[in-house]
Amino acid sequence: MRNTNNNNNSQEDQRKKESTLTSPDSRFNQTLRNVQGLLKGRSIPGKILLTRRSDPLDESSLPELSPEYERSFSYNDAGSSDRLAKAVEEEVQSTSKSNNDTNVKLKTSISDIENTSKEVQKSAMGARATDSARVMKFTKALSGTTVILEKLRELAWSGIPDYMRPDVWRLLLGYAPPNSDRKEGVLRRKRLEYLDCVSQYYDIPDTERSDDEINMLRQIAVDCPRTVPDVSFFHQPQVQKSLERILYTWAIRHPASGYVQGINDLATPFLVVFLSEHLEGGAENWSISDLSVEKISNIEADCYWCLSKLLDGMQDHYTFAQPGIQRLVFKLKELVRRIDEPVSRHMEEQGLEFLQFAFRWFNCLLIREIPFNLVTRLWDTYLAEGDALPDFLVYIFASFLLTWSDKLQKLDFQELVMFLQHLPTQNWTHQELEMVLSRAFMWHSMFNNSPSHLAN
């Protein structure tokens, strides 16, 4: 009898153990740890442990490209994206198979990652051909009588050809109508409306302004020369005056928030992109004085309306106490805790609050954290996200922070503060940025449909 009871107890313990090992939560955690393990090991920008394979990938054996895709990686730096996607796909698939394909929580993310990796699995030798193919896709998407915005967002997420960026940004933000027959008329009307606003609010003597308006204009005038100090183009007085007109007009027409420091940074990508339609070469060689007054006015108008459209989707980021940013910083903290618990624990032990460094990230959308020549590529993804951008920022910033996972765990409080205020991104290229976006995409795929994982 005693032996029988012992056997029964032993069998019951074994069943409990097996149940624990195969539960959805444990499988999810194990997969997350496996994928996280692949993405760690990065100590220098551009160096990352991507795969456990000892032999090089046989590029000739890679499958054909999927004709349809949603978010995919940039047409820039195709080779590095290929290897990352291959490694992630292999790791997630191997874990999934070992669990007999029963992990419901990862079903959506695995599917999304597989779809993405099918698109980016191509050889580096074929990158130039793919560039041409992507340009043809953009050309086709823009050439119809009515642009299908959802398709355009899918293409834009992974990067927009430079010369197409102004038109695509106007469309993604809803400034230009998708109906091509209406485009010229709408833009003409909106540009005239901006001119009216400038003459009504900006081109007036201070005696007609309130004290608050005078103080706001003075603050803008102080901030404009500080905007993007590393790019000489923004030192030109005429550029600073254009920026001042855009910001002041926007602030007067949005009294709920008014002008908040940081909004000056958000206007700069629009200014550079819309100027690129009229000036050749790099921004460091531009002179805005080469343009006519009419062209400058049209560029300012486009910047004003696109900035307005962008901020309409994140108004509470800039109202009193900036509650929208505080909410997203909390989500970022929870996401980092879930993805990389050692980093989260170390930062907490050192007494570092996420608000101390991440507030600026959300306030300026990383413009101050990366080289300015990478900002427009990053903003392609921002604008492609549309209304979902605020929540997706959390994943981008988590990926950005955890680029230095190993480094952060070795720093004390003071060193953490200094490091996070002066991140070593000055030599970053598109490759490092694509890595950040690809990780953000993967984590979004894993967590977006499982919000309870981010609950406190």
| Ends distance | 48 Å
What integer value in Å does the Rg equal?
25 Å
Main sheet record: none
Percentage of residues in DSSP E strands: under 5%
Secondary structure: helix percent? 55-70%
Q: Which outline best applies?
A: globular
Mean pLDDT across all amino acids: 80
Q: Give the SSE order as H and E letters.
A: HHHHHHHHHHHHHHHHHHHH
Q: pLDDT below 50 for ≥5 consecutive residues: which ranges? A: 16-28, 34-129
Structural class: mainly alpha
Q: Could you characterize what this model shows?
A:
By secondary structure, this protein is mostly helical. 62% of the residues lie in helices and 0% in strands. The chain has helices at residues 2-21, 24-39, 78-98, 107-120, 127-143, 149-156, 165-172, 180-202, 211-223, 237-253, 263-275, 293-312, 323-339, 341-349, 355-364, 375-385, 389-401, 405-408, 413-421, 430-447. Helix 9 runs antiparallel to helix 10 (237-253), helix 11 crosses helix 12 (293-312) and helix 13 crosses helix 17 (389-401). The protein starts with a helix and ends in a 9-residue tail after the last helix. The model is unreliable at 16-28 and 34-129 (pLDDT under 50).
What labels describe this entry?
single chain, 62% helix, mainly alpha, 456 residues
SSE diagram, text form:
Blueprint: H1 2-21, H2 24-39, H3 78-98, H4 107-120, H5 127-143, H6 149-156, H7 165-172, H8 180-202, H9 211-223, H10 237-253, H11 263-275, H12 293-312, H13 323-339, H14 341-349, H15 355-364, H16 375-385, H17 389-401, H18 405-408, H19 413-421, H20 430-447
